[in-house]
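Hypothesis: this fold can be encoded by more than one sequence.
Test: take the structure tokens below, design a sequence, compare later.
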């Protein structure tokens, strides 16, 4: 059976989405014919709309008409704009008891059990830098240690975690707290077998301040080093290499064993989104999230500027008014932050998103929220806070993917799924990153980068639930050690990007 030319997502929608390039005069639904060419992933109006009236997709408002529009018109940035409207937060209105899988039937993965009981999906050596001034030295250390790993096949690699901050900033306050929380989250991440915390010595983010504030303890698997105290770069590299060389046999002495899927923390990301993201990969990932939650695991949605306008769909699923209010408080913080800094919550979608068919941040947000599935929202975290709850949770973060993912991994995420319609190439050491293509053309074009094709949903060859099951099973295999496409390509060293909130002085 041939799939229809367009996709209708809800009976109340007044737009449909093109499955393919549609030429002028082509009938798309009933008597409605396209009045102009409409690219794949873009929207076509199916009913008359007056100037100022809402345009709907997912049975939700995605924008407002800039003029009187006739059926068949291409709806995009030239005739659909943002506008203010009331959103009913209806706290807890859609919260429902989760249908958990009986414990005896729950899925497992082959993971690494750390001495403190935590579960790891990878086994890396980390070099956590306190400041940009120690970045080059950290790379030198990694370059010296990497060749030694040929004798230690159970170690996945050495990760120099470099960034642009750590000085030229206040020595205390929100930005320093966030930076330290992020660095500590990576230093104590279960996917790290051993860590060097490397500073320069004179930076605002002093090693002693970081260790004290975050409760990090020097020990056999965590050593702090300052380049100035060690006598310069050469001596630092030699000492750090010697320290790590001694640890390699112990770090290599790990065996994978069955661990319940309930110990997975799955980070949810989307980037390079298109008009199909909210139709295929995002809801399919949401179906996988529902499965993970039913098996006792955790999934974390983020990117607050990219759920803006759709946050009411999450507050309705909150397990308590308190949890829902925590999310709304984060939305208000962002509104205030933009007002102070001259930014706009509506400064989105990106040019690539628009080329792919997304028109407003409302439309993008509605599709992004679909990654979170349908189970209850059980908690809300600030950026890089340790994630302790089981179930579907939210972490506040910017929409910029590397910054957002960095916060999630710092919070403890040990596997990550990244949906993309334009073709994001993203790795996230020490956490494996799976790429989910929203359309088959992308999957075929970038097959070396994409781990799974969700374009089959658009083509009517697969259901959302069927695709979600495939994603869930791939998550388990990945957590068990199967390499992702980004890992095979060696991507993931440079995507560490802590959130810089304040001014650089």
């Amino acid at each position: 059976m041939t799939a229809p030319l367009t996709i209708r997502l809800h009976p109340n929608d007044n737009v449909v989405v093109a499955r393919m390039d549609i030429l002028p005069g082509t009938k798309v639904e009933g008597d409605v014919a396209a009045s102009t060419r409409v690219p794949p992933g873009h929207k076509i109006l199916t009913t008359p709309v007056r100037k100022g009236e809402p345009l709907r997709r997912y049975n939700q408002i995605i924008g407002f008409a800039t003029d009187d529009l006739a059926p068949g018109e291409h709806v995009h940035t030239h005739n659909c704009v943002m506008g203010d409207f009331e959103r009913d937060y209806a706290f807890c209105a859609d919260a429902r008891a989760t249908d958990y899988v009986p414990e005896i039937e729950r899925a497992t993965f082959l993971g690494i059990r750390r001495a403190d009981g935590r579960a790891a999906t990878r086994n890396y050596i980390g070099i956590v830098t306190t400041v940009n001034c120690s970045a080059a030295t950290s790379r030198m250390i990694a370059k010296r240690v990497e060749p030694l790993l040929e004798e230690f096949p159970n170690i996945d690699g050495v990760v120099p975690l470099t960034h642009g901050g750590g000085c030229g900033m206040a020595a205390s306050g929100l930005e320093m707290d966030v930076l330290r929380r992020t660095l500590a989250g990576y230093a104590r991440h279960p996917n790290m077998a051993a860590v060097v915390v490397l500073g320069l010595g004179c930076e605002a983010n002093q090693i002693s301040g970081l260790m004290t504030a975050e409760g990090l303890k020097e020990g056999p698997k965590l050593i702090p080093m300052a380049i100035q105290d060690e006598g310069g770069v050469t001596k630092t590299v030699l000492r750090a290499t010697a320290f790590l060389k001694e640890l390699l046999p112990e770090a290599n002495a790990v065996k994978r064993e069955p661990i319940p899927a309930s110990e997975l923390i799955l980070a949810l990301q989307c980037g390079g989104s298109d008009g199909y993201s909210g139709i295929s990969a995002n809801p399919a990932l949401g179906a996988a999230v529902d499965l993970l939650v039913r098996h006792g695991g955790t999934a974390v949605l983020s990117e607050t500027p990219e759920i803006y306008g759709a946050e009411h769909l999450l507050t309705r699923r909150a397990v308590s008014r308190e949890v829902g209010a925590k999310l709304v408080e984060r939305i208000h913080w962002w509104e205030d932050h933009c007002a102070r800094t001259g930014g706009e919550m509506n400064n989105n979608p990106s040019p690539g998103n628009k080329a792919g068919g997304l028109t407003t941040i409302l439309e993008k947000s509605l599709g992004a929220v679909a990654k979170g599935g349908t189970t209850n929202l059980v908690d809300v975290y600030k950026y890089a806070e340790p994630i302790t709850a089981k179930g579907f949770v939210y972490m506040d973060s910017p929409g910029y993917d590397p910054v957002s993912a960095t916060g999630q991994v710092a919070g403890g995420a040990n596997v990550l799924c990244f949906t993309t319609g334009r073709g994001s190439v993203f790795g996230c050491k020490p956490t494996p990153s799976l790429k989910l293509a929203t359309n088959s053309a992308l999957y075929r074009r970038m097959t070396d980068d994409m781990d799974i094709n969700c374009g089959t949903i658009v083509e009517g060859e697969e259901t959302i639930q069927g695709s979600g099951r495939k994603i869930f099973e791939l998550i388990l295999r990945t957590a068990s050690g199967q390499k992702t496409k980004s890992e095979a390509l060696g991507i993931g060293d440079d995507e560490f990007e802590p959130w810089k909130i304040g001014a650089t002085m």
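The mean pLDDT is 95. The CA atoms of residues 149 and 176 lie 34 Å apart.
Hypothesis status: open.
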